Amino acid sequence: MPGTSIARWTRPAQPRARLVCLPWAGGGAGPFREWRHLVPPDTELLAVRWPGRESRLDDPPPADLAAAVSGLADDLHALPDLPTVLFGHCSGGLLAFELVRELRRRGGELPGRLVVASCEAPGRLTGPRPIGDLRTELAGNGVTDPRILGDPDLLAVLAPPVLADLALSRSYAYESEPPLPVPVTVVATEEDLAATPARWTDWQRETTRPLRLAGVRARQLFPNGAWSELAGLVSEELPCPRR
């Protein structure tokens, strides 16, 4: 399908809930496959696979953030109705937030909860932010294998999707809308929560429901860090599994 593609990592016979995961800049659907044994067994686990990576290497990127969000809204609308939680990691959290806004504008069914990890409140992003040196950007995300940073050939393969994703997220400029009637959970490292609390607590402005903050005792929340713990925190926001 043009614009986005959704990987389905679990297929329960009688799904009770759906978890849709949006990756960080340059990330793919693959890392969320590890969560298939960590979410409740009656949860349908889906992950967004953006163009330019994994099985979509030759697909062109979305024209802009609005196009990316609109395409994903179309994809979700085509799915059977099911109680849904959206999870976005870093820039994926920003896209997940704008996706909920787009669903509201369309008058569609809203997710039961929005969960974001390592994603500061969108209201703090009032204008475009510059993209730094690619090696610096990749080294700072905590997930890129250091061997890739020193290999020009591997960097050349990785650069296009990373730069395309960064161009989308760094061009974002917040526009005020009424807060969402959807509860929001923000996950960050305990260090980040303590050092820059407003980056996370400002999410309260985007929801009419009480904000939940969850701290993780880890240096970062990527697959080579507290990935299983993050899956557990996200699973807590899903409907309880059948007893």
UniProtKB/TrEMBL annotation:
Domain of life: Bacteria
Pfam family, one: Thioesterase
InterPro entries membership: AB_hydrolase_fold, TEII, Thioesterase
Domain Thioesterase stretches: 18-213
Signal peptide (from-to): none
Family according to the record: Belongs to the thioesterase family.
One GO term of the biological process aspect: lipid biosynthetic process
Record's protein name: Thioesterase involved in non-ribosomal peptide synthesis
Source organism (scientific name): Amycolatopsis mediterranei (strain S699)
